[in-house]
Backbone:
DNA sequence: TAGCACATGTAATAAGTTACATGATTTT
DNA sequence: AAAATCATGTAACTTATTACATGTGCTA
């Protein structure tokens, strides 16, 4: 069993494990559940679905619900096996590029206040992410309280939330240090 | 001033702000300093350097140190301005894909013990990252104690370390929960 | 009737890795 | 003498986003 470099196909298999659905619905579902740590564009989804059918990982059925045509995909046994196999393979360590850290690293070259502004902006982004996580979990708890996968959804969300919280703490600490060093441009923050 | 989607050129400008160097040396330097949050391959570096010279962001000088030829690049005023401008632009929020979280999210489909194993593996990766960060900072403190950029290098490292620590804590908490739910395959961990 | 959500797809472009090709020098 | 490191580069391939093209059905 060999896997591609990225997990586009597997993310779709995972969604199909929750029930048959169309490419459009997959995109939507990602937006409402995994958006904080995984998304796919239509440009990836539709070609991937074609490959999946060709490879026997899913089947298609053209449905015309209310005159509106859609292609509903369904996981095959082979698809399930493939998903399970992928879930058992250790993700190999990959560098996730972090533009903020790159900017901080070269911060000595920035105009006074620029890095402090980056830190403030990052803090805001993290607060937003945290809110998104909280809203997502809350909605899921309400809509799918008894779903067997719920504990896993909660675990995944908690990891993202832990990241966000740690980054917020770092932002505060770092902003304070920049302030102590006189590297915060007053005009912008008081 | 408009920027490309990624910061390959800017990462090279940043390195050149520390002093003139060759493409090979840039790669090496990244490996020894920003490897935890930013790397570039030669396939990116060499073409980018060509573009940079063409765009007036750097100049080249062919040097033959000890009979060995190399191209040493140097930042121009325009290159400096460009770097400073980039440092002042807020990074727009991007989803960084997290394969581990995707696997946890679909963990209900995994074989017993598989997700616990993923969590254990992630914990190890984070411990390693933490060690790399500590070693990097230590080496820098020794080699460049009085470098004006040192405070920024420390800040960047501390952010990465905070991430790693937060993830380790999440791993422990999550492993404990999986254990409580009987989702750890005994054979593998005792 | 205008606009939005539903629905599927492709083409162009961008971004990035890997493997290969080449050759010098230094270390083992 | 072999292997590793220094040094530059390109070609093939993979991955991903964005914009475009097309059309239906529902809602304001």
Residues:
């Amino acid at each position: 069993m060999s896997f591609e470099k990225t997990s586009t196909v597997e993310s779709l298999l995972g969604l199909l494990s929750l029930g048959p659905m169309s490419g459009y619905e997959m995109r939507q579902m990602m937006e409402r559940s995994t958006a904080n740590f995984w998304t796919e564009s239509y440009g990836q989804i539709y070609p991937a679905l074609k490959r999946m059918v060709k490879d026997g990982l899913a089947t298609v059925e053209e449905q015309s619900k209310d005159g509106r045509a859609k292609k509903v995909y369904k996981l095959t046994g082979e698809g399930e096996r493939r998903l399970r196999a992928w879930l058992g393979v250790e993700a190999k360590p990959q560098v996730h590029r972090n533009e903020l850290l790159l900017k901080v690293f070269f911060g000595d070259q920035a105009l006074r206040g620029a890095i402090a502004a980056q830190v403030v902006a990052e803090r805001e982004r993290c607060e937003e992410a945290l809110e998104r996580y909280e809203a997502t979990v809350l909605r899921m708890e309400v809509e799918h309280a008894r779903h067997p996968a719920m504990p896993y959804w909660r675990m995944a969300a908690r990891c993202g939330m832990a990241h966000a919280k740690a980054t917020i703490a770092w932002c505060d600490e770092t902003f304070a240090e920049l302030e102590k060093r006189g590297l915060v441009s007053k005009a912008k923050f008081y």
User: Anything to note?
Assistant: Chain B touches chain A through 69 residues (CB under 8 Å). Chain B has a mean pLDDT of 94. Residues 99-189 of chain B form one domain.
